[in-house]
Automatic annotation (TrEMBL):
Domain of life of the source: Eukaryota
Organism, as annotated: Balaenoptera acutorostrata (Common minke whale)
Protein name: Probable asparagine--tRNA ligase, mitochondrial isoform X2
SUPFAM superfamilies per record: Class II aaRS and biotin synthetases, Nucleic acid-binding proteins
Gene field: NARS2
GO molecular function: ligase activity
Length: 425
């Protein structure tokens, strides 16, 4: 039987079953009488130990080569693993020129170094772990929404007409929320961000949800907090080794920081309170905090620290700062909208969302203010034909991975990062 490394390692009472395993050599150790190989196929962090006698030519078996091994799965005598594969046949499928291969056996290469090899870095332990966590988190997010996942918004696709890459699926979700009360989408979105920051990509994945008959920001924030915590707990229980590897070698102390986030209730402050807090500390900033101005990354990070490294919702931003679709709070003299951002340790803004303006006349005014009246007649229509109070949010998936794993640069949590002037692969 053909087994994945993960399944081979999980074999309970290995007692000589004949199996076949395929993968890449992660280490070769040759002793007088025996040869030890470690083979990894991406299914787990741990590699499978293959034991061969000296009749196998170890020169053929280089670090990085792909192999197919047939043999017997047996209990290991060593304490380091439960099972090992006693090789009967080892076939090198593809040789690896180990001298030219950019990664060296047993060396822990920094993430910046690995980033130079987007076509090869997935062969390393650390990238393997990050991508397995990414995959688990994707599945966890889908299952968080599963009971309500009726609709997935299709990609825009036209022939011979100029098309645009979407910056968000929100408006399409709002259309759907006019018939299905809870919808979500999870896919690539695009921004022409001319930014070299460690938290911006030109193509990133966004989880977006839209909920109809939603009465308050409170209800929306509950879903946001639930998404973050449930997804994280699922990931922690489904791939603990991968998470631990990242925590241990990339971000010491991250395990505790994450636990701290999970066990506390997220905090809520208003934009106005946030600005007051920042003003008290303005000597720390390059950009002077001021009511009516956007929060900068440095401000966001300060606020999270100030809140004891617990994620914090900042709500009710000035109307003038936000897009036309956000719901007017009709307060004076500030004049704010029911917007919410979630700021998290290490990253800053992770979620953005709002209640949407469901009242026809308010929306009409806002569209006029933005010069969009003509283009958005269809959007106004949604308020003419059975409008309901609704709201939603978007969560940057790569920033989410950065936040839970403690990874400083967003380019390390997506297999092929696309950003300013860089679309290599
Ligand atoms: O705050 P944003 O721009 O919100 C929206 O697009 C709303 N229409 C979402 C909605 O309500 N349905 O983006 C949401 C999140 C941000 O908080 C951030 O985490 C992430 O998407 N994000 C980026 N991540 C990586 N690179 C970029 N250039 C990003 N821009 C936004
Ligand atoms: Mg935002």
């Amino acid at each position: 039987a053909k087994l994945s490394v993960r399944d081979a390692l999980g074999a309970q009472n290995a007692s000589g079953e004949r199996v076949k395993v395929q993968g890449w050599i992660r280490s070769v150790r040759s002793q007088k009488e025996v040869l030890f190989l470690h083979v990894n196929d991406g299914s787990s962090l741990e590699s499978l130990q293959v034991v061969a006698d000296s009749s196998f030519d170890s020169r053929e078996l280089a670090f990085g080569s792909s192999v197919e091994v047939q043999g017997q799965l047996v209990k290991s005598l060593s304490k380091r693993q439960n099972v090992e594969l006693k090789a009967e046949k080892i076939e090198v499928v593809g040789n690896c020129d180990a001298k030219a291969f950019p990664f060296k056996y047993k060396e822990r290469h920094p993430l910046e170094y690995l980033r130079q090899y987007p076509h090869l870095r997935c062969r390393t332990n650390v990238q393997g772990s990050i991508l397995r966590v990414r995959s688990e988190a994707t599945a966890a997010i889908h299952s968080f929404f599963k009971p309500s996942s009726k609709i997935k918004v299709p990609e825009e696709n036209f022939f011979n007409v100029p098309v645009f890459l979407t910056v968000s699926g929100q408006l399409h979700l709002e259309v759907m929320s006019g018939a299905f009360t809870q919808v979500f989408t999870f896919g690539p979105t695009f921004r022409a961000e001319n930014s070299q920051s460690r938290r911006h990509l030109a193509e990133f994945y966004m989880v977006e949800a839209e909920i109809s008959f939603l009465e308050s920001l409170q209800d929306l924030m509950q879903v946001m907090e639930g998404l973050f915590k449930t997804t994280t707990m699922t990931v922690l229980s489904n791939c603990p080794e991968d998470v631990e590897l990242c925590h241990k070698f990339i971000a010491p102390g991250q395990k505790d920081r994450l636990e701290h986030m999970l066990k506390n209730n997220f905090l809520i402050i208003s934009y106005t309170e946030a600005v007051e807090i920042l003003k008290q500390a303005s000597q720390n900033f390059t950009f002077t905090p001021e009511w009516g101005a956007d929060l900068h990354t440095e401000h966001e990070k300060y606020l999270v620290k100030h809140c004891g490294d617990i994620p914090v919702f900042v709500i009710n931003y000035p109307l003038a700062l936000k897009p036309f679709y956000m719901r007017d709070n009709e307060d004076s003299p500030q004049h704010t909208v029911a917007a919410v951002d979630l700021l998290v340790p290490g990253v800053g803004e992770l979620f953005g969302g709002s209640l949407r303006e469901e009242r026809y006349h308010f929306l009409e005014q806002q569209l006029a203010r933005s010069g969009l009246t003509e283009a958005y007649q269809w959007y106004l229509d949604l308020r003419r034909f059975g409008s309901v109070p609704h709201g939603g949010f978007g969560m940057g998936f790569e920033r989410y991975l950065q936040c839970i794993l403690g990874i400083d640069n967003i380019k390390d949590v997506i297999p092929f990062p696309r950003f300013t002037h860089s679309c290599l692969l």
